[in-house]
Amino acid sequence: MKPFRIAVFASGTGSNFQAIADAVQAGKLDVRIELLVCDRPKALVVERAERAGVPVFAFRPKEYASREQYEAEILQRLREREIDLVVMAGYMRLITPVLVEPLYGRMINIHPSLLPSFPGLHAVRQALEHGVKVTGVTVHYVDGGMDTGPIIAQRAVAVEPEDTEETLSAKIHTVEHELLPSVIRWIREGRVRLEGKTTTYVKDGMGQ
Ligand code: GRF
Prior knowledge:
This protein is of the alpha/beta class. It has a single domain (about 5-200), classed as Formyl transferase, N-terminal domain (Rossmann fold), CATH 3.40.50.170. It is built from 6 helices and 9 strands, in the order E-H-E-H-E-H-E-H-E-H-E-E-H-E-E. The chain has helices at about 15-25, 45-50, 65-80, 95-105, 125-130, 165-190, and strands at about 5-10, 30-40, 55-60, 85-90, 105-110, 135-140, 150-160, 190-195, 200. The strands form 2 sheets. Strands 3-2-1-4-5-6-7 form a 7-stranded mixed sheet, with helices on both faces. It has a two-stranded antiparallel ribbon with strand order 8-9. Strand 4, helix 4 (about 95-105) and strand 5 form a beta-alpha-beta unit. Helix 1 packs across helix 6 (about 165-190). The chain is globular and about 50 Å long. The N and C termini lie close together (about 10 Å). About 35% of the residues are buried. 5-O-phosphono-beta-D-ribofuranosylamine binds near residues 16, 110 and 111.
C-alpha cells in the first residue's frame, strides 16, 4: 500500500502530535507524518517534531501581510509533500478558504467538547461554567466555520463535582490521545465516508 502522508497543524504543547507520533512509532498507525505546521516557532510541539524527525514549517503570522498569504505558503508545502490528510491538533488560528476549499474532506480537527456544544476557545472552561455533567471530545472534518464541520467521532467524559479546568482537561486529553490516532487509522483504511453534512463509518472499509 502506498504510504499515507499526513501533516499535523499545532500551536502549543503538542501532546496530540506526540500521541500520533507514538502510535506511528509503535507500528499501530500506518501513516507517515510528513510535516508539522506551527504558527509559534517556540512552541513545545516544534521540539517534539524535531525529536521525532518530522520536518517543521514554523512561521510567524506577523511576518505576513495577511492570513491568506501564509496559508498560500502552507498549501504549497502540503502540495509539495503530497499530503493525503491534514490533522489539526490544537492549531489556534482560524483558517480561510485558501486552505478549506482545496482540502475539504481531507482535513480534520480535534476539539475538547461534544460539539455542537462549546465551540471555540476554552471549551473545557465553557463546559464547567455551564454545569454540564458530561462533556467529551469530537473529531470532525474542517469546514469554513468555527468547529462546525461534519462529525466523525465523539467520546464522552464525565464531569465530576470536584473537577477543575485542569483535572477535566487532563481527562479529556487522555481520551483525545486514544481517539485521534484511531480516527486517522479509520480514514487511512477508507472507513470514513463523508456524505453532505454527516459521515458514516464503514465496517469493512472500501476495499482499497
Ligand atoms: C486539545 O485539547 C485539542 O482538542 C484542542 O487543543 C488541545 C491541544 O492540546 N484543539 P495539545 O497541544 O495536543 O496538548
